[in-house]
Amino acid sequence: MPSKQELPIIHRPTVALGLEGSANKLGVGIIRHFPRPSSKTDARRPAQILANIRHTYITPPGEGFLPRDTAKHHRSFVVKLVKDALKTSGLTPDDIDCVCFTQGPGMGAPLQSVAIAARTISMMWDKPLVGVNHCIGHIEMGREITGANNPVVLYVSGGNTQVIAYSHQRYRIFGETLDIAVGNCLDRFARTLQIPNDPSPGFNIELLAKKGKHYVELPYTVKGMDVSMSGILAYIDGVANDIFSGNPRYAEDGEIITKEDLCFSLQETIFAMLVEITERAMAHVGSQQVLIVGGVGCNERLQEMMGIMARDRGGAVYATDERFCIDNGIMIAHAGLLAYETGFRTSLKDSVCTQRFRTDEVFIAWRDD
């Protein structure tokens, strides 16, 4: 492990361009960090968001997004989004200090397409590259926006489900999914129901769940600090297929179970599982704060359930809105600039992407113990 060092004193503002494209969202962000008030380590640097542009690849109802088609989307829009971000920020390439990009985890082809764009921009503008772990981007952006100091982090998205806490300059994974991520579970059930993918399948499930009245008992699979969701998905898919095949299921009051009831039941079950393992992590590390990050973190019911648990423990929940919880370029710019300010750079040789880039692999040089 690298040794902990005093962070360098930076006497001028620094600016980063960030590119995100690990899944179906292509994001470009520009952020400015102002100098620290002193050389003390882990002192927060005031940040200014200058641009946060995003474009989403949306498929027809019932269909997921394939890697090759998603990569084609990113290649088609990345130049426009970079130009739009510069125009929004009022900056020129000369004002940029570094070019940051998502190095993983994520879908291979989309990651590669954005990495190529980042390398090209880096060489064209003669700016250093900074590869960023996607999960670290979510966490650091969440900390920046909410002001959470040292929370237990619930990271929930289409490709990731992890409970995380910081210790000794690493984000340690306390628990995670053993199979599919919570966002993937919701997205795949949305395909079963043939509901639209615009603006996102998970959001549309959330809307339907608010109309649900009956709870359908589903498998509840918590294994220590980990969760499993593939069995839950298979079970509820079977119930949904029965309903669509003309074999209705009935609630205790005799009413027919609807798709709204199924969405409600799925959310209640998997969110309860996430609350359970998050509470256990809070008890372990003695934290009173929960920070929810990732696309599923926008879900109001998840925030509500987590809030009830946290308040019972005398704590609080921190969450962001869709500008920052859904994949975006500004989180990559922010996390990349934090690393850049500690002297970190990514060479062209080392700028390859990896679909399995673990959260706890990253040395967090910008935070104190």
UniProtKB/TrEMBL annotation:
GO MF annotations in UniProt: chromatin DNA binding; metal ion binding; nucleotidase activity; tRNA N(6)-L-threonylcarbamoyladenine synthase activity
SUPFAM superfamilies assigned: Actin-like ATPase domain
Pfam families listed in its UniProt record: TsaD
Entry's localization field: Cytoplasm; Nucleus
Catalytic EC class: transferase
Enzyme Commission no: 2.3.1.234
Keyword DNA-binding: no
PROSITE patterns attached to this UniProt entry: GLYCOPROTEASE
Gcp-like domain boundaries: 49-333
A GO biological process held by the record: positive regulation of transcription by RNA polymerase II
Record bears the keyword tRNA processing: yes
Predominant location category: cytoplasm
Cofactor(s) named in the record: a divalent metal cation
GO annotation, cellular component aspect: chromatin; cytoplasm; EKC/KEOPS complex; nucleus
Binding residue positions for a divalent metal cation: 134, 138, 155, 327
Binding residues for substrate: 155-159, 187, 202, 206, 299
Cofactor binding note from Swiss-Prot or TrEMBL: Binds 1 divalent metal cation per subunit.
UniProtKB keywords: Acyltransferase, Cytoplasm, Metal-binding, Nucleus, Transferase, tRNA processing
Reactions that this protein is recorded to catalyse: L-threonylcarbamoyladenylate + adenosine(37) in tRNA = N(6)-L-threonylcarbamoyladenosine(37) in tRNA + AMP + H(+)
Family to which this protein belongs: Belongs to the KAE1 / TsaD family.
Xref: NCBIfam families: arch_KAE1 (TIGR03722), gcp_kae1 (TIGR00329)
PANTHER family per UniProt: TRNA N6-ADENOSINE THREONYLCARBAMOYLTRANSFERASE
Name of the protein in its database record: N(6)-L-threonylcarbamoyladenine synthase
Organism expressing this protein natively: Lipomyces starkeyi NRRL Y-11557
